[in-house]
Amino acid sequence: MNNHSEAPVEAYEPPYYVAVFTAVRTQEQSDYSETNARMEDLVKDVPGFLGMDHAQTPGGLGITVGYFRDAGALAEWRSNAEHRAAQKRGQVEWYRSYTLHVAKVERSYGFTRAQSPAAG
Amino acid sequence: MNNHSEAPVEAYEPPYYVAVFTAVRTQEQSDYSETNARMEDLVKDVPGFLGMDHAQTPGGLGITVGYFRDAGALAEWRSNAEHRAAQKRGQVEWYRSYTLHVAKVERSYGFTRAQSPAAG
Known about the structure:
- Two copies of one chain form a homodimer.
- Helices cover 29% and strands 36% of the residues of chain A.
- By secondary structure, chain A is of the alpha+beta class.
- The first copy, chain A, has one domain: 2-Layer Sandwich (Alpha-Beta Plaits).
- Chain A has a four-stranded antiparallel β-sheet.
- In chain A, helix 1 (32-43) runs antiparallel to helix 3.
- Chain A is globular.
- The first copy, chain A, starts with 15 loop residues before the first strand and ends in an 8-residue tail after the last strand.
- Chains A and B meet through strand 1, strand 2, strand 3 and strand 4 of A and strand 1, strand 2, strand 3 and strand 4 of B.
- Strand 4 of chain A pairs antiparallel with strand 4 (95-112) of chain B.
């Protein structure tokens, strides 16, 4: 199976953690893309980081979900100095509003369509 | 504050539940929009339903997050007959792959930018 960039993060064996970040951005997006790419790189170095999904409705809501093996992995990411600096800048410049929900996964389930011989 | 359709669901007092549904769709989308709208109506009738966020990257990943007061509210939604029928049809027609993560929120946080007098 290809690790297609648009394939969602798989269902891991619970328990694990999800951090659901929902955000509406401002018009001021200087350095946002670069900082976002840097954060995506940095978080991969956190032991226990499992993956990240992101979807962005053009002109609307963005949802990012980070998956972590345990609360310690999340705490490490939360205390990362570069990450904290990016959060502060986000409040001042990039985000009109956002919400973070940190939750412990109790149940997970994945579905993948069987390849049809008819489909290319 | 306006209940702007793009404003994310707020941070409730934990504990509550999130159901994170990440999906990649197929080319076959007959009746998808109508069914999706019907599900959005139906879930609002579930006691303990708190809200829903959705973001869709064009041609890519869709993320839907449902928020529920407790496990009982989620169980009621999961057992809804029309919802179950829609899930089955989704597996046959609409989704190439999807993942569901059901998790209990332990911590939540919201940020809303103060209105600037300079901004319209």
